[in-house]
Amino acid sequence: MINRNFNENPFIVIWELTRACQLKCLHCRAEAQYHRHPLELTFEEGKKLIDNIYEMNNPMLVFTGGDPLMRPDIYDIADYAIKKGVRVSMTPSATPNVTKETIQKAKEVGIARWAFSLDGPTAEIHDHFRGVEGSFELTINAIRYLHELEIPVQINTVISNYNVNVLEYMAKLVEELECVLWSVFFLVPTGRGKETDMISPVQHERVFQWLYQLSKKVSFDIKTTAAQHYRRVVIQQKIRENKKTNKDIQYQDVLMNGMTGQIDGLGRAPKGVNDGNGFVFISHIGDVYPSGLLPIKAGNVRTTPLADMYRNAPIFQDLRNPDKYKGKCGVCEFRYVCGGSRSRAFAMTGDYMESEPYCVYIPKVLRKQKNNV
């Protein structure tokens, strides 16, 4: 794993190639439309952007949308990035655009991994969530094509009130589909996402506990999105387990770096990748944000180099300083490895530095204060 200073370079870059999409997902961050925007970054602008991304210590690059397959030059863009040595993954929508031929072409170009969304273990649940009948069947067929061509498959699932009660069946389906990673998204009320569709803070905690226990017995990896406090649950559980086995563990090291210096079952980087901290999002028209769920623009790649915005924009600098977080997040002993969802804080309070609204944990310093009263 490449060592990274998140103040200088991101761990992962998400590029929304287009907002065009044939689906009508209930939670869609992008509020995607059927037609492409006339001001999308051009192929030449995309090449310049890829050059800038590569120069930032070559982070992972994910093509998303909308549906990236709605761009006819998607494979030319991918080919340019891959030939530079950039690691490219793609998250297309499961539509008739996904055929065995398109997947074969992606393999020939060298796209490392595909990710598809599955929001329920049945067509009834998934198709309702995605807004188009037949989406479930198209997704399953696409995954079968990927297996035939020996391309790793990732499944993305948005947890909401629509599917929280069928997660065990969902996990079983992910295993049956032989996926390498289950990326579990926790709803943020932005775009088409509604607060009424979110599970409660207590349900978040219960799902985190369940995911951790699941991670110890399944063949696929598990990561979370917009659920940074899952890292806190993982670390708490690992500390308890290490105490039971009398393993020596340095508590402060765990809080700063995770249980290892690398993956640690958290799904990705150890030191709390978060919105604007190891993570950057570029929109279809070149606007730069800390994430796709935190709609505060730092600038545009047409006028300002990506590195300048990532390193110097005030919002990015704020987000990389957990000591500036407000409320309980600012004093929490897990703030360096967790930090809460800055997107959810903004969506629900209007302040991206506020506490994670859907975390039930009371930091140690606040418990001590309460006991001293």
UniProtKB/TrEMBL annotation:
Molecular function, one GO term: catalytic activity
Entry annotated with the keyword Iron: yes
Domain of life the protein comes from: Bacteria
Keyword terms, alphabetized: 4Fe-4S, Iron, Iron-sulfur, Metal-binding, S-adenosyl-L-methionine
UniProt domain Radical SAM core: residue ranges: 7-217
InterPro entries: Aldolase_TIM, PqqE-like, Radical_SAM_PqqE_MftC-like, rSAM, rSAM_sf
Cofactor section: [4Fe-4S] cluster
Keyword Iron-sulfur included in the entry's annotation: yes
Protein name (Swiss-Prot/TrEMBL): Radical SAM/SPASM domain-containing protein
Organism: Bacillus wiedmannii
Top-level taxonomy: Bacteria, Bacillati, Bacillota, Bacilli, Bacillales
